[in-house]
Batch of 2 targets.
Target 1
Amino acid sequence: MNNKAGSFLWNLRQFSTLVPTSRNMRLYPLGLCKPKIVHSNWNILNNFHNRMRSTDIFRYLFQDAFILKSDVGFQTKGISTVTALRIDRPLYAKRLFFDSKHSLVSVDKSNDGLKKVNFHHEVSSEDVLTKETKPNRISSRKLSEECNSLSDVLDTFTKAPTFPSSNYFTAMWTIAKRLSDDQKRFERRLMFSHPAFNQLCEHMMREAKIMQYKYLLFSLYAIVKLGIPQNTLLVQTLLRVTQERINECDERCLSVLSSVLEAMEPCKNVHVLQMGFRILVDQQVWKIEDVFTLQVVMKCIGKDAPIALKRKLEMKALRELDRFSVLNSQRMFEVLAAMNHRSLTLLNECSKVVLDNIHGCPSKIIINISQSCKDLQYHNLDLFNGLAEYVAATFDIWKLKKVLFILILFENLGFRPAGLMDLFMKRVVEDPESLNMKNILSILHTYSSLNHVYECQNKEQFLEVMASALTGYLHSVSSGNLLDAVYSFGLMNYFPLAPLNQLLQKDIISELLTSDDMKKNVHKLHILDTCLKLDDTIYLKDIALSLPQLPRELPPSHPNTKVAEVLSSLLGGEGHFSKDVHLPHNYHIDFEIRVDTNRNQVLPFSDVDTASATDIQRVAVLCVSRSAYCLGSSHPRGFLAMKMRHLNAMGFHVILVNNWEMDKLEMEDAITFLKTKIYSVEALPVAAVNLQST
């Protein structure tokens, strides 16, 4: 008798650990929870058609089993208790089985609350679960193979519920992955309205503390991916239990937990779990053996993770570098971008593997690598050339949209893949009907920014096709998009009449000057106005725009002292050149030199006033940075090319001085370099001529 009483009390204590004892829980970091009973209004997700009479104590314990906050919009009604057990032997955690047809305890309830608890000890032989009536455990894989819909899984659960309940959620998510988006939405509605869905959710919450940790994570991931709202008690309870049991996490669970965190929206419980996850990773990073798991963890660790943790993960990845497969090397770019950690050693080594195995590389991986390089601002000319050449070699199998996306990423990196851009221009000329407004804007921006069309054979044909495509959208294009398109045409020294005339209308200009992007619009309109006045547009020179004044272009924050010293030594003093010269149209040049028309002799500024204007050649010295050129070349980008074109129109001979190269030169070499740029070939010594020719 004592043994039976002790067994019964032990079972009762087990139930107290399986269920929430309060409606709301105040959450504390790393899963420490303190109960706080707050009687708030909750709505049940689905109405049970056959409601059981609430006569047992689990009505009080489980009445909020799966509920939503009131802002979700479901009807508020009571929920019937669906839990109870019949016990004929001591109950062990891993042998729990819930049956809604029987009850362990019942409660007599009056207005004053709970008054009497009746325990049912007598068990009839037909109610006892035997080996013959106990349902066999079924795996999630078998469920997903046997069932064709989410409702089928719930029907199977209704017939014979088995432990753990996570198998049913995992099976439903496996089935949902096979469905189209429309089918998923339809099946999700059926799932929420299924009579057994709430019961399954109740079982899941009760089993959360006793099921294996990996099943808890599998079920949480499946529940989130199935679209069950995060503000439900089910999801928040599973999150809380996941926090409490996080020390049970092994290497496989780390991978699953990473996927769970990546799939969830930010909230307080997710943030607490994220912090616990980082602490756990910091402790177990050297124990991770699988490279794929390491990369999943690195991707999930977050951009705001401590730099010390990022470096520890980087060192672990470097140790495993010899074990990287081709796929691991390809994924490493995306992983580092997700961490916002630019490890040059890892990126360089993985780039070599990518280039060695570029043939047959899927388009998705090429796009992900390009996107990650853009996010990390990782500039590897060999990698970019290899990717561009592969895309060009397989150009016929690529969709126009994907190639354009790669070109946009390359433009952001300053890389100009000339061969690929030529092929793309040819495709656009052949099939202009495939272009939408977004494509047109992206193409114009990319080609004008990289200054590609000026040396192409089919330049005029390409620009005409693009202008015609833009004209077809003039009835619906916004003023901002129209300005962007015409501005890009202006950088390429092309001015289509129909778009330009529409842009210059007073109401369009007024709209641009009063928009949220007013400063950017004014800047572009000033540049466009300068193009109309200085470029070869005779029929448009009389157009005058009334625009707000722009602030003067500021001189460089780091003065070009070395160039000034070289010019002073070469020309015989500062009286032979001028610094920080401001010109009309808001242009600024670093140095101005004046020479005779044959560029044989430098003229002091004091003698210029007496000389005839026809005998003087003005020289503009521009000190430029790497970003003014396309990556790995001396090809000027769009704005610098336009500035050089306009300075030539104003009568200047333009000399470009690369800052990073000038800093490396000794004074004597720097003097020789500038001498070959300033003077004509006839006025130079033989050594200088040889230097210029090389």
Target 2
Amino acid sequence: IRRAGRRSPGQRRNLQIRVTMSISGTIGVISGINECVNLFQWARSSISSLHSRWSGKQEQNLQDEVLHLQSGLQCLSDTLPAMYNLIDRAEWRSHKHCVAELLPKFSDAVYDAEDILDEFRWYEQKVTVEGIASQSAFIDFFNCVIQGSFNKVKDIQKRLENLSNLLEKMGLGEATPRFDKSVRPETSSFPIETIMFGRDQELTQVIELLVVREGDSTTKAHSKGKRECRTINSSKRTLATINHVCNEQENGLAVLPIVGIGGVGKTTMAQHIYQQVKPHFKKTIWLSVSDDFDVKRLTKEALQSISGEESTGQLDSLQHALHKTVCQKKLLIVLDDLWDDALKENGQSWKRFCAPLKNVRKGSIMLVTTRSQKVADGVRTMKTLKLNGLKDDVFWNFFKLCMFGSERFSNDHELEQIGRSILPKLKGSPLAAKTLGRLLRMNRHTTYWNNVLESELWELRQQEDDILPALRLSYMYLPFYLKRCFSLCGVYPKDHEFEKDYLAEIWVAEGFVEPQGDIPIQDIASQYFEDLVSRSFFQKVHGAYVIHDLLHDMVQMVSKNDCFILKNVNEFQKIPKNVRHLSVLSNPKFDYSKLLSLCKHEKLRTLICNMPLEDKVVAPVMDHWCTELGRMRVIICASTTGLPGSVCNLKHLRYLEISRASPLKSLPSTFCCLYNLQILYIGECKIESLPSDFDKLISLRRIELCGFRYYLEYQLNCDALEAEQKKRYLHGL
């Protein structure tokens, strides 16, 4: 805050006290001011209306205090989008130590900015709801932000400015983010792995399919718009039909995608196919695409791959040259490592690239490797070949080769048994086997191997080309809003079954969902979920959505500073200082003192407590949490004896769930101060009454209690009588 002249700390504190008392007294004596959403407008009006109580200079000082605070908050709000963009860019270089050191600190400052802006909005809502009765709203916020000579807003601004300058000096504010070549090296058609484990059947049948396509029967079927069907066994021996669908108006070239998560062996499969079928094609091209789908670059490289000479010129001349080279030739082209930008411009980039390839000879084919089912669906003319993890017996032989240098035997049976225990962690991933095999091969002591066995995969130090850094590429490629949503999943344990609507509500409550016109925000969040499913971050298993174990290890790695899962007593000391999202798994050894210690993590936003809090010993911990953890936006509790009056401290709270039957029979009157609350799920609790001011919960959209459900967004289309009955039910409570 700007003040005339330099003052000592004592003088500044005294001035701060006088200014605070002046503003407090001013607002306190105003009785006829109209309801006003903007706190600053209210404060300025209050000061101006009583200008006769002090000199012009004093009034100006007061007005300056208000204006500078308002300006600081507006500056934070305006700066946030640029800060999000910088975080996004920094994550692309988070494999570099200097960036990895700064990124958590910068993210923490951004979180703090979000929290203080969100707190201001709560005070604005207080004015909206209570009007004249909330005369102290501005002074409460003022005292919260400015404490003596310390100004929270200015402190956050300085941190953001300092850290953003440091990050931008590292070149993060310049070009479009791309995968670092050290993380994602260029591939070629020559296999690094001369032997493929566990893919013989798929490899043989794909090769047969490609070779047989040059026969007369295939050509005739092609000309009639019908396609050959071949059955290929996946690694789980389920039948997957590769079916060439008629799509000649798009492309005369058949496109077969190979899809799977990072490290499963897609490139190795494509390399072996390429080398074995190459003699059957007149022209062959291998392109390493990665995250830069530049049509001109790829066309140049395609020409160079065929001619061996570097090509130059405009796109038109390059495409004419490529068309002339492959026209009526039997072509095999491989596009390795295709990402979502292949579908940019609403698919026009992909069509532009394929345009010169339309008049190739019948039987020509394009192989595409990708991690994304969405990409595969966007480019395929044949049903996708999905690669899953290797089967246990084959995978064990491969893992032994990685650990001991031989798949046949090892000299240490004790180490071999530990290796067998580690195997399930790897989920059949060849790259995961190489990663752990390298770590284990470096140290042949049983103590070290047991430590690896007991550790989570994400806790182990890995090189840039190991499994989790490889999987992290999929995360980095997400839009920033999807990164935030998926990283939150690091607070859930492995094998957790996700429900789309439930997770969408959590994302909305956390503030991760960006409004889009008049579309209900819940629908936008649901679309986020579907987008992550299409990108293979969630997979459907037996009707439920789960995250692949290796992807779960990856999300815990990228969110290690923000998310934590408490499983055992000895893990309380491992919780990151500024953790934002925490889940507490049920454990009888988690006593009152341990649960109370969570209060020191005052920046916590999400608390998922799977422990019942009904026992008299641990029940009081809820009161301490509500008192000390004032930034919480989401609380999910298994059960509790009741909600304390201190729940009113949770100004940011948007989602509250008590998931099991509990002795809770009523809500405290202070509950009605939760102006941000959107979701209230206490359906298993026998609530006998609601506070009289329940209608002050102006943000409430969904309620489930006592078997009763009320979803505000769905009431617009429901029967009028039904809606009225639900309102009467709530009124009766």
